[in-house]
Amino acid sequence: MRNVSILAATGAAFALASHAQQADDAQVPRQAAELPQRLEGTGERAPETVPRSSAEEGAEIDPAAFRFGLGRRASGEEIAAVDIDVMPDGHGAPEGGGTFAEGEELYATHCVACHGADLQGVEGTGGVALIGGRGTLDTDAPVKTVESYWPHASTLFDYTQRAMPFNAPGSLTPDEVYAISAYILGRAGILDKGTEMDAATFAEIEMPNADGFYRATRPDTGPGEAPDAD
């Protein structure tokens, strides 16, 4: 009986405390959140205030000198290290050279894991086919390879020099890049297997899809050249 009395007293005390808290809450003034501002005319919600930019804290820019107070002027050696593009006529190509036979050995070491012994690519690695595909570009199943799609041999050299092999891009010497390029072009039937490839070779190589590209219309170059209707 005593336990019942204690429980009843506890319940009554809790009810009184809860009622008192509700009474106190009722006396606290409540303020509703402000509604978002609306744009006049459209009624759309106005954008939030843009925070102050930290750029205002930087040094002033001198437009006349075109100096921004950032970084430093690149050295000749640093510029030369990245200025390695090769043009279709061979301009910009480095000194050196390589043969089909040399490229065959290098391909087996650096390229076969991704592009396969037959140069048809390895699906599991994502390596694409490098040769084949001639005559497929205007079909429903075009096969784009170095042989069928690329318009200039210099693109092969330039890309290989910059981005290959996949696990160590930029690690090949110019002689090695020449040799691998000679091997791929030789397997494609574009370059004679007995020809040593060097800077002068680019202008002599005629890629199967050399006429498959045309200049696009751009503000800096003017109207492009439309392809033949047929």
UniProtKB/TrEMBL annotation:
The keyword Transferase does not apply. This is Cytochrome c. Residues 36-62 are annotated as: Disordered. One of its GO terms (molecular function) is metal ion binding. It holds the Pfam family Cytochrom_C. It comes from the Bacteria. Residues 98-188 form the Cytochrome c domain. The keyword Cell membrane does not apply. PANTHER family: ALCOHOL DEHYDROGENASE CYTOCHROME C SUBUNIT (PTHR35008:SF8), BLL4482 PROTEIN-RELATED (PTHR35008). Keywords: Heme, Iron, Metal-binding, Signal. Residues 1-23 form the signal peptide.
